[in-house]
Amino acid sequence: MTESPQRKSPMPLVLGLAVALVCALGAVWVSARPSDNGGGAGAKPSTTVSAPDAGTATPTAAGTTGPAGQGPTPKGATSLGSAVLVHDAPARAAAVTLFVDPQCPICAKFESIFGKEITDLAAKGTISVSYHVMSFLDRNLKNDSSARGANAMFCAADAGKMGEYVQALMAGQPAQEGDGFTDAALTQFATTAGISGDALATFSSCLTGRTYAAQVAASEASAEAAGVRGTPTVMVDGKVMDLGTLTADNLAELIAAAHK
């Protein structure tokens, strides 16, 4: 796939700090900002984009074959290249889609700060949660660890453990960006996520066989086609959430406001 032109992401991630960071197509954007109580001066407001399918149709069963000749889709995906639903919720709930790249260090920071609260909101039925996995950092870092990590996430989805796997992988990112993941590390993340026994054997086969290579490529392509240019990106009901004002204290409030 031809690399998209380098663009700065319009969704800076403040995390209550004075520096906003986002992994972007072609670059990691670093933007110095005043520390105005975690505010995001200059951040653009939420906009509506043509969001990739994030759970409006019935998710597929594990390993379901997509359109002819295009390969299988993991459990929780609605079609080849769609987001994967990991926490369902009533129709009235906000639909949250998280765009992540396995090698994105800012995604790992986001997960460490907001991951538990997102899981808690999902457990309460306040939100549904889907992951849309990107792999553009392979181009930037000249390796294949984003694609391999994405495939592993989809393998974990078949075991019903994608959310836990994402948490384990993000926590286990190499200290040096670009060092990538070994198969041993990707398998250990599965164990940490609670995949064991026959499910772990199935995961291992899926990992080494790159079962979801077509899903990985299609997922990246559909995210770029929808205008997503950096990770983490968060959509609420198909609208890009402004991360410029996001702190550890106002996540639920901002999701509720975006859901109105």
Describe the overall structure.
The protein is of the alpha+beta class and 260 residues long. It has one domain (43-242, 250-259): Glutaredoxin. 35% of the residues lie in helices and 17% in strands. It has helices spanning 105-123, 137-141, 145-158, 162-171, 183-192, 197-208, 213-225, 251-259; strands at 19-24, 27-32, 47-48, 64-65, 72-73, 84-87, 94-100, 127-133, 230-231, 233-236, 239-240. It has a 6-stranded mixed β-sheet, with helices on both faces. It has a 3-stranded antiparallel β-sheet with strand order 2-1-9. A two-stranded antiparallel ribbon has the order 4-5. Helix 3 (145-158) packs antiparallel against helix 4, helix 4 (162-171) crosses helix 5 (183-192) and helix 5 packs antiparallel against helix 6 (197-208). The longest helix is centred in the middle third of the chain and has 19 residues, at 105-123.
